Amino acid sequence: MDKAICALCDVRVRLGGFEFGPITHTLSRGVTSLLGANGAGKTTLMQTIVGSRKPSGGSISVGGDTKATVGFLPQDFAAPGHVRVTDYLRFIAWARSSRKSAISANRVAEALERVNLADKAHERIAHLSGGMVRRVGIAQALLTNSDVVILDEPTVGLDPINRAEVRALIHEIGADSAVLVSTHLSEDIADFNAGVLVLDEGRVLFDGTVAGLVATSGAQAVSGPGVEHAFVELVQGQRK
Ligand SMILES: Nc1ncnc2c1ncn2[C@@H]1O[C@H](COP(=O)(O)OP(=O)(O)OP(=O)(O)O)[C@@H](O)[C@H]1O
């Protein structure tokens, strides 16, 4: 088994009067799907890993470093339509650079290659399809060349062709990095067919593989409907 790249230990987050967690989980190279009903805490967990929410307890380390940079595609990713793709990514690269570690123009070109948008580098963002804009969002998440990439609902709202392209891209990113992907689409989870973390009301309900999740409802083969059935049974069983 690959060694842990990101380790979460007893992570808790205070949300008004409610405390999310504790979550203990490790992410290794490959894709892990994050699953949960609306309000289960998927975005909260992702925002906490990337550092935009402060945990009220526990610890998060990436490659042994508690302040490492993590690539992130937020759920509500949007980019200014009048700006050209390369100019947008160069601006993000500049904004994320520091005196000690500058993100080079080469890194922008590499990120565009990785998301298969090199031929759209000089296009205005408003002229791209929804699937291409999502890939621009993934490109900005790859600029920091992080070992951990967090993608909040990267396939939502895409047609089946664009969804399959984004899934293929996520598989490729998972070959080098630990990728955590939240999605409500059981078809995505069956396609990733790797690790899965199921949350409910801020707690871990299941931590294992997609095959293991499907097996909880007695099914043998991994499929979209099989994932959905197992997920519904798991959550409803917990709430009884
Ligand atoms: N600042 C806050 N104060 C109180 N409650 C909050 C706060 N932020 C989030 N919550 C609540 O915490 C819960 C978790 O929200 P979160 O957005 O993480 O869920 P989610 O699993 O990503 O949902 P969805 O699938 O709808 O995107 C929700 O019930 C939300 O209303």
CATH class of the largest domain: Alpha Beta
CATH topology annotation of the largest domain: Rossmann fold
- Name the helix and strand elements from N-terminus to C-terminus, one letter apiece: EEEHEEHHHEHEHEEHH
Average pLDDT, rounded to a whole number, is: 92
Describe the structure.
- By secondary structure, the protein is α/β, with parallel strands linked by helices.
- It has 2 domains: 1-68 and 147-210, 3-Layer(aba) Sandwich (Rossmann fold), CATH 3.40.50; 78-145, no CATH class.
- Helix content is 37%, strand content 26%.
- It is built from 8 helices and 9 strands.
- It has helices spanning 42-50, 85-96, 105-114, 130-142, 160-174, 186-192, 210-215, 224-239, and strands at 4-15, 18-28, 30-36, 57-62, 71-73, 148-152, 178-182, 195-200, 203-209.
- Strands 5-6-7-3-8-9 form a 6-stranded mixed beta sheet, sandwiched between helices. A 3-stranded antiparallel beta sheet has the order 2-1-4, covered by helices on one side.
- Adenosine-5'-triphosphate binds at residues 15-16, 18, 36, 38-44.
- Adenosine-5'-triphosphate is lined by residues 15-16, 18, 36, 38-44.
- Keywords: ATP-binding, Nucleotide-binding, Transport.
- Belongs to the ABC transporter superfamily.
- InterPro entries: AAA+_ATPase (IPR003593), ABC_transporter-like_ATP-bd (IPR003439), P-loop_NTPase (IPR027417).
